[in-house]
């Protein structure tokens, strides 16, 4: 996914500069949390209701060419070619993201100087404003690696699991290969968020997925208190279920679903790495051949 935004904040002096810097960070945070640009814009309005801003936001799936956008004030997102009714870009399409009085270019022809020159010319012609241009060359293959940032809030887990499921689907992983992995990730994140952070402050957990040839690698990092889950003794499955150690059951399930599980403590971070062999391969690799 690629997110592009142009923003114009009206004001003067140091106060406007501080508002712009704050809004920039707010926008980046909202784009990391919400998939829908309209929800990003709503979050910015709610948090910065006293800031006089105009904005144009674009979110593009670089694999499929699907785009979504939201605008406020004079913001505009326009496609300088035929995007089609399904809102998917085709090779050669140019997307114009602007605020202020900057009009889109009069022609889809790109000068030898590149799109940057087109943007500069239109801003100069308008006498100010803010604009960006994006050339969509072609649909690409889904990225082999994806990193997701999860706040230490249990309510953030379902969204992350949805993103993981989308990653599996993009790489056409067989259902039998990834069965139970969502429960594994849920178990790890639930325990991490519940027990790793004792200072009461906001933290982030990083979940990295890598689709390699015949293997899925999942890495979970957190900066919480040191804890090696592999040191938890295996549960005695002969005991009554009410007497079994909950933590041990979770680790046992993780070991059962995954083929390899490793832990290390590195520069203040807990790093849990999980490997899963993909017996069915990946459909995207087959289509490439």
TrEMBL record:
Picking any one GO molecular function of the record gives:
ATP binding
Domain Histidine kinase/HSP90-like ATPase, by residue range, is 151-275
- Identify the keywords attached in UniProt to this record, alphabetized: ATP-binding, Kinase, Nucleotide-binding, Serine/threonine-protein kinase, Transferase
Put simply, this protein is called: ATP-binding protein
Q: Which PANTHER family match?
A: ANTI-SIGMA-F FACTOR RSBW-RELATED
* EC class of the enzyme, as a word: transferase
The record's listing under CDD domains reads:
HATPase_RsbW-like
Give its E.C. classification number.
2.7.13.3
